[in-house]
Amino acid sequence: MTDRQNDTTQWLPVVAVGLATFIVVTAEMLPIGLLTPIAEALNTTAGKAGLMISLPALLAAFFAPLVVLASGGIDRRKILCGLLAMLVLSNLASAMATGIVTMLAARVLVGFCIGGIWAIAGGLAVRLVPAHSLGLANAIIFGGVAAASVLGVPFGAWVGDAFGWRAAFVAVAALSAVVLAMHWAVLPKLPSARGSQMQQLRAQLSNRALMAGLLLTLLLVTGHFMLFTFVRPMLQQMAGFGASAIGVLLLAYGVAGIAGNFFAGMVAPRCSACMLLAIALGLVLVPLAFFAFGDSERGGAAALLLWGLAYGGVSVGLMTWIIQSAPRAVEIAAAMNITIFNAGIALGSWLGGRMVDHAGLHANLWLAEGILLAALLLTAAMAYVALQRRSQTQAGVVSKA
Prior knowledge:
Distance between the termini: 44 Å
Structural class: mainly alpha
Number of domains: 1
Order of helices and strands: HHHHHHHHHHHHHHHHHH
Strand content: under 5%
CATH topology: Growth Hormone, Chain: A
Radius of gyration: 20 Å
Number of helices: 18
Largest sheet: none
Helix content: over 70%
CATH architecture: Up-down Bundle
Oligomer: single chain
């Protein structure tokens, strides 16, 4: 086998896992771009329609560690394929929903798929590529999040505007079937990795660096989804955009997100704390930007691009910190991060829904700003401790020499 064939064999599974994260995030976030028409069709409020995001995210938070702990020695390839098959069915069920109750019932299955797929995919890079390729592999796998913003969510919004929101769910079901076929064809056997046991979970609860990373995940994701769940109403009611512009704007947001993802993927392995500090600062500036000049189309678009660039690096930046904090328990640490990540999505979209329904979009911006500011302060403390430890390590090496 040639070196080029070896490279292809090595990277095709990575691309397949990246497509799995892409399609599951697309399915998870699809209602965001269609929130207004779905709420109108199902005769419910925007806040209640936001449960289409918070409910599956909450269930994903519960299922992520459960999948790792309960799956035993089952081949991870088989688990991923089974979850992708469920994703096909859940999106078809969403397309046939006749009311908010039946829609939320379909989204329960989406939550199971989100938790399971992310729990397995989040720590797979270390099993698919050598150590020197981890930065790029993680960027590709977590690039599925940003790519979902670039292609998935705007595509869903476009299909929904052109053919109806039900057609958008059918389209995601079809794409999920394609990704399932690719997984079955190119993924190698992936037996259970050592360390995904209950004792490993208990041991990590005393890992201070990991616990700090998990708290940061909760703060960043909660603050982001308080706002992003209602990005369409913000762009239409605050910046004055028409409905036809939403798909293009989300596309631009996603392009900025992909740039942020790959930049963070390359930088984070060298200094994950520094990267997280830059990301937190960028997200703190987003609500301020909407307050300062988000009442115009040009200002709203500029704030959205800053938002995409900053949030694009969140997943890979956080996961790099998590993996570096627990190198001997990557799979269980990744599952813990996915749990907190999805808890943040659920909490953020729920809090945002309450604020938007009872106090309005501006009040929601203020509360999210407070949460993101707390995340920035925590990140600064984490960066300080990490840099102090690095200096002490370097000083120890010099003294020994």
